[in-house]
Write a structure and sequence with these properties.
alpha+beta, 3 domains, four-stranded antiparallel sheet, 52% helix
Length: 802
């Protein structure tokens, strides 16, 4: 009964493009909404799903109505504006309270007829709605004014409103253009742009994009067939419904090819082709990102970095800037994967030597990092800075009181090309700057960061030239302020981490030997940008070393600082950029977001802060050579600890849950491809049979399917008798079918005709004296293939004998 009602209902409200195409459009719409939500641009992004669903429903109703396109556009525009405003600002009050106040107001108006001095009741709900509307208008107004004067500030309400309108319009166009115009590619293009830009600019899961691409690829032939069937029925052209199965087979194969190319193509690397492509695309890409930054400059996805950093209050001025400094200008996305140009840095150091004739490939030479800020305090989950003071420095005045000896002066010019707040960069210990800056210090010789709003400046730094031997023989006596600040670790540090630090450096005779031993130990862990975040409350260093055992620069640098402090070696965390790519024509380094980096620095008396590189993906720093004898062999380090089995299982499960959409799509595609291959091999083997054997095989398969329809073939039955038994079984099944319509007699007649054709062919092949040709076999196989689909569908949708 329920199945029958559902069948009748679905037939009455059947979309003009058919249920399969209609469902594919809905899946694509929901994939887009969920993909934008997965990027986590702002809070309350679940509104995108509701907006897309309501827009799709209303557009589908209008597209199936007799409303003209112009009036439908007006209705959709007005409804979309009102619904988006309500979803974002929540202007309308709850229905019950609103009706209650309206009733109170109506009662008051009625009573005023007899009591003119009666005071009106308080309309608190509607007053609150007015305040919400005024606040919403004020936020949009401030966003518009900021937009008119330059890049907008962070305004989540404006972002939700504009993004909600874009989602509404894109969804409405997708449904309308697919149903009314029959142009699925043009219809789905806006949704694809929205989802593609959101995925590209954020860390959203690519599975939603794969789902969207699969739906659109299937939608193209399905909608084309649906409209073609409509034309055939309008013109009275006879056609077989079996063509739908063939179209679906072709559509699925096409979808698998498209998805396979989408997955495989990005992993191919052709240097010249890639270089040419980025030269072509960089300008429009920069224009689009600049446009987005201008509109939503302060909105970016929630960062996935599991080692966040923050600033504490600073005496004498503002707190230090956030250590996500290199990521501060991003609209969104993973900084390690972006090619957005951050700055150009030109130095007076000798140009590096190329090791490849192709310009812009790989250049070798001394390595330096463009440092933006340093951190001194780690609590197991966060980096922060203790009290510091800001001192304004005039042009060419000393930035620090440095006591470092044996230094080399390096001149750098920075041309910052993106909004950077007050963050400035310098190599080593900055000495003088050609413009006024703010020097944020912990002490007169301990720099936190340089700050200023300038975009083009020149700084001269002192870079230590201490060799490995000099660092090895450096004094172990530390100033009290250094040991008090840079040997401190948090009390909750797990015991396994403490034990591991002692094990690594047990044979190291000096601070330098300890630091290099810890550096070599950490470089054993593989580099991975996709490592899951540490569980809430777990120490990040413990998680990196014992659980994840892979990660990126933040993990390596934080672990290095904690381990060195545990063995009495003062260290701190530095954040900035690596050198970037060298441009020989301009004699400058081009730094992009993918060069964002963090690394540790170790303090050596007389030589200052020396950088180390524990991150496996980057080469270690090369120390200047001296003429003395070679140092002793480095201290051997233990292998990385073995992971606990429950950690591996937990991580596998987390990845499976994270990528379940991709896995389901790939598994389903592989199963479908396997089924198509099996069907192709079966047909190939059938075509190689003798004509009589091929026809006999079709008859045997028909008998096997007939048994499942309660049509048992007895050994004494002739082909003609069994044909009558199977036809009667089909009639009995159709009589119990939940569907009713004018097409039932034709279905029974068509099925009976094909049963008779296969039985007659088998009878001829078995008893006739005439020869059976290959043409007879192919004709019988075509009849059986169409009959088999009908019988299987009848068995699945009808009831057997009781």
């Amino acid at each position: 009964m329920i199945l029958r009602l559902l069948a009748r209902g679905s037939e009455r409200v059947r979309p003009t493009v058919g249920w399969p195409a209609f469902c594919l459009v809905w899946i694509a719409v929901w994939s887009t909404a969920l993909g934008v939500m997965d990027a986590e641009w702002v809070e309350r992004d679940v509104l995108f799903f509701y907006i897309a669903s309501v827009s799709a429903l209303l557009s589908a109703l209008l597209a199936h109505s007799r409303t003209s396109g112009r009036w439908s556009a007006v209705i959709l525009a007005g409804t979309g504006l009102l619904y988006t405003v309500q979803a974002v600002a929540r202007i309308l009050p709850p229905l019950v309270r609103a009706v209650s106040e309206l009733w109170s107001g109506a009662t008051w108006l009625w009573l005023r007829l007899w009591q003119p001095d009666l005071a009106p009741p308080p309309f608190e709900v509607w007053t609150d709605s007015g305040l919400r509307l005024a606040t919403f208008a004020e936020r949009l107004s401030s966003w518009g004014m900021a937009l008119a004067t330059g890049p907008s500030d962070r305004n989540p309400v404006a972002f939700l409103f504009v993004a909600g309108l874009i989602t509404w319009v894109s969804t409405a166009w997708a449904l309308w253009a697919t149903i009314r115009r029959g142009q699925p590619l043009l219809a789905m293009l806006p949704l694809g742009l929205v989802l593609g830009m959101s995925t590209y600019l954020s860390t959203g899961h690519i599975g939603y994009l794969i789902s969207y691409a699969g739906c659109v690829t299937l939608l193209l032939p399905v909608v084309h067939l649906s409209r073609q069937e409509w034309r055939w029925e309008r013109d009275g052209v006879d056609y077989s419904p079996e063509i739908r199965f063939d179209v679906w087979q072709l559509a699925v194969v096409l979808m698998l090819i498209v998805l396979l190319l989408a997955i495989v193509t990005p992993s191919l690397s052709i240097p010249r082709l890639v270089h040419t492509f980025w030269q072509f695309i960089s300008r429009p890409q920069a224009a689009i990102e600049a446009f987005l930054v201008r509109f939503f400059g302060g909105v970016e996805p929630i960062p996935p970095t599991p080692i966040p950093v923050r600033s504490t209050g600073a005496s004498g001025g503002r707190g230090a800037v956030d250590a996500s400094l290199p990521r501060a200008h991003l609209l969104g996305g993973n900084p390690e994967l972006s090619n957005w140009i951050v700055m150009d840095v030109c130095t007076d150091a000798p140009a590096p030597m190329p090791i490849d004739l192709y310009p812009g490939e790989i250049w070798t030479g001394p390595k330096t990092y463009w440092r933006g800020i340093t951190y001194d305090t780690f609590n197991g989950q966060r980096w922060s800075n203790g009290p510091s003071s800001g001192v304004r420095i005039a042009p060419y005045e000393p930035v620090l009181v440095s006591t470092v000896t044996d230094t080399l002066s390096l001149r750098q010019r920075y041309l910052i090309q993106v909004p950077h707040g007050t963050s400035l960069y310098a190599v080593g210990e900055p000495d003088v700057v050609d413009q006024p800056v703010l020097s944020r210090r912990r002490a007169v010789d301990d720099l936190v960061s340089l700050e200023g709003t300038i975009d083009d400046y020149v700084v001269r730094s002192k870079i230590t030239q201490a060799s490995a031997r000099e660092l090895e023989s450096a004094t172990e006596t530390l100033p009290e302020r250094i040991s008090a600040r840079y040997l401190e670790v948090h009390d909750s540090l797990p015991a396994p981490v403490r034990d591991l630090a002692a094990e690594i450096v047990q044979d190291a005779p000096s601070s330098y030997a300890k630091a290099t031993a810890i550096e070599r130990y950490l470089r054993q862990f593989p580099y991975d940008l996709t490592v899951p975040s540490a569980p809430s409350g777990q120490d990040v260093v413990e998680y990196f070393i014992f659980d994840a055992q892979r990660g990126y620069c933040d993990y390596y640098a934080s672990s290095f600082v904690v381990l060195t402090r545990l063995v009495g070696v003062p260290s701190r965390l530095a954040v900035g950029y690596t050198m970037g790519g060298y441009d020989p024509e301009r004699n400058c380094y081009r730094v992009t977001e993918m060069n964002a980096h963090s690394w540790p620095e170790v303090y050596f008396p007389e030589y200052g802060w020396i950088p180390f590189e524990p991150t496996a993906a980057f080469s270690p720093f090369e120390r200047p050579q001296d003429s003395g004898p070679q140092l002793d062999q480095p201290v051997p380090v233990p292998p990385i600890p073995r992971r606990y089995w429950h950690v591996s299982v937990r991580e596998w499960w987390a990845q499976a849950r994270q990528y379940q959409v991709t896995y389901v799509v790939l598994a389903g595609g592989a199963a479908l491809a396997l089924a198509l291959i099996v069907e192709g091999v079966r047909r190939w083997r059938r075509n190689r049979l003798d004509p009589i054997e091929g026809i006999a095989l079709c008859y045997e398969e028909m008998s096997a399917v007939g048994r499942r329809l309660d049509a048992q073939r007895r050994p004494i039955d002739t082909p003609a008798e069994y044909s009558a038994i199977l036809t009667a079984a089909v009639r009995a099944r159709v009589a119990r079918w939940p569907w009713r319509g004018q097409g039932l007699p034709s279905l029974i007649g068509e099925t009976g005709s094909r049963v008779g054709a296969v039985s007659s062919a088998y009878e001829r092949a078995s008893y006739s004296a005439h020869s059976i040709t290959k043409r007879h076999q192919m004709q019988t196989q075509r009849e059986w293939q169409q009959l088999r689909r009908q019988l299987r569908w009848l068995r699945l949708t009808s009831q057997g004998r009781r």
